[in-house]
Amino acid sequence: MKRSQINQILADAAAFIAQHGQHLPGFANWSPEDLVARVRSDARQIMDRRLGWDITDYGAGRFDEMGLFLFTTRNGDLSERDSGTGMLYAEKIMISRRDQLSPMHTHVHKVEDIINRGGATLAIELFGSDDAGNFAQDRGCTVACDGIARTVAPGDKLMLAPGESVTLRPGDWHAFWGEGGDVLIGEVSTVNDDLTDNIFREPIGRFATIEADVAPTHLLVSDYDDWVTQG
After folding, report:
1. Which of 7, 44, 200, 227 is least buried, going by the fewest C-beta atoms within 10 A?
2. Are 196 and 107 within 8 A, CB to CB?
3. What is the pTM of this model?
4. pLDDT at 231
5. Which of 168, 178, 185, 67 is nearest to 127 (CA)?
6. Residues β-bridged to residue 55
7. Beta carbons within 10 angstroms of residue 109's beta carbon
8. SS3 state of residue 109
9. Per-residue model confidence (pLDDT) at position 207
10. Per-residue pLDDT of the chain (231 residues; tens, 9 = 90+)
């Protein structure tokens, strides 16, 4: 993805979030230089816990067709997750555009509530796992939608209206997109680890490859290592 495209997506996402009465934390407005300076002084947690802006096209170069906008607002760390004490939760704001696929995947550790915070309908396609935890074309799964058990046949879709949610556990394979329009999504989960905890059905990447045609408006979480540790 070109950096100019990413900058525009960030601006559009901020406007869409505000349109639905939501607000991002103050560090969302930091310039790259300000973020680097603060991470090196009093805001190291932003880098260590990978808080902030995130855009992916899953390495396919077709963001409008397959991609996702995310902003991680809070997150524990893996040592806390593994010890079972401390900050064991994470929260994200996401935007799934109309017909923009987030491809089929599951997680090794993460349990997540996916919440339609506003906009159009969120469509979630579901499959279960085989006994080894692999994608199973012939297995459905049972999930909780706002506390109500739903048994979903393999490949069936949940259609979440604004305000509705689903709890997904490891082994619940899922893909999702905006149905009929763009959707503002909330994710409340156990500790988030986008580096190792996402298992995709197809061999695709989690992060975009960026072409630096212009300077960044804001850094993405995938920029942090280069800008903070090598800059």
Report:
1. 44
2. no
3. 0.96
4. 58
5. 168
6. 69
7. 15
8. coil
9. 85
10. 999 999 999 999 999 999 999 999 999 999 999 999 999 999 999 999 999 999 999 989 999 999 999 999 999 999 999 999 999 999 999 999 999 999 999 999 999 999 999 999 999 999 999 999 999 999 999 999 999 999 999 999 999 999 999 999 999 999 999 999 999 999 999 999 999 999 999 988 788 889 999 999 999 999 999 999 875
What span, in angstroms and rounded, lies between the C-alpha atoms of 105 and 171? 9
Residues facing 152 on adjacent strands: 141
The amino acid at residue 118 is G
Task: Express the helix, strand and coil content of the chain in percent, nearest 5 each.
Answer: 20, 40, 40
CA angle 124, 17, 217 (to 5 degrees): 110
Give the span between the Cα atoms of 161 and 119, in whole angstroms: 8
pLDDT tens digit sequence for 189-201: 999 999 999 999 9
For residue 212, give the amino acid letter. Answer: A
Please give the Cα distance from 218 to 221 (Å, whole number): 10
Q: Hunting for tokens 């989960």 — which residue is that?
A: 189
**Bridge partners, 95 (sequence order):** 69, 184
Residue 2 CA to residue 7 CA, distance in Å, equals: 9
Query: For residues 126 and 138, is the Cβ–Cβ distance under 8 A?
Result: no
CB 105 within 8 A of CB 56: no
Whether domain 3-229 has CATH 3.40.50.1000: the reply is no
Q: Which residue in 174, 144, 168 sits closest to 156, CA to CA?
A: 174
